[in-house]
Amino acid sequence: MGSLNGILAVLAAIVGVFSIYKYMASADNKLWMVIGIIAILAFLGLGAMFLSGRMNKTDDIHITE
Fold first, then answer.
1. What angle separates helix 30-53 from helix 2-25, to the nearest 10 degrees?
2. Distance between CA atoms of 38 and 53, rounded to whole angstroms?
């Protein structure tokens, strides 16, 4: 499931950047902006889940390591 979150995060980032680009090029079409914001929020959420799954929760973290 962790790799799927990473792939979906990358796809959401691509969709978000593309939507913001289309909004900048269009004649003030707000739908592209809304899609871009939703995709970027999805990117942040999926990326956080991907990175949190990468941490090894069974090992203790010591300051001396």
1. 160
2. 23
The separation between CA 45 and the C-alpha centre of its own chain, rounded to angstroms, equals 6
- Tokens 């980032």 label which residue? 13
Chain segment 8-58, per-residue pLDDT in tens:
999 999 999 999 999 999 888 899 999 999 999 999 999 998 888 766 666
Instruction: Tell me the two tokens of residue 4.
Output: 């799927």
Rounded to whole angstroms, the Cα distance separating 47 from 54 reads 11
Using DSSP, state whether 9 is helix, strand or coil: helix
Q: Check residue 27 and report its DSSP letter.
A: S
CA angle 10, 17, 2 (to 5 degrees): 15
CA dihedral 55, 58, 62, 65 (to 10 degrees): -70
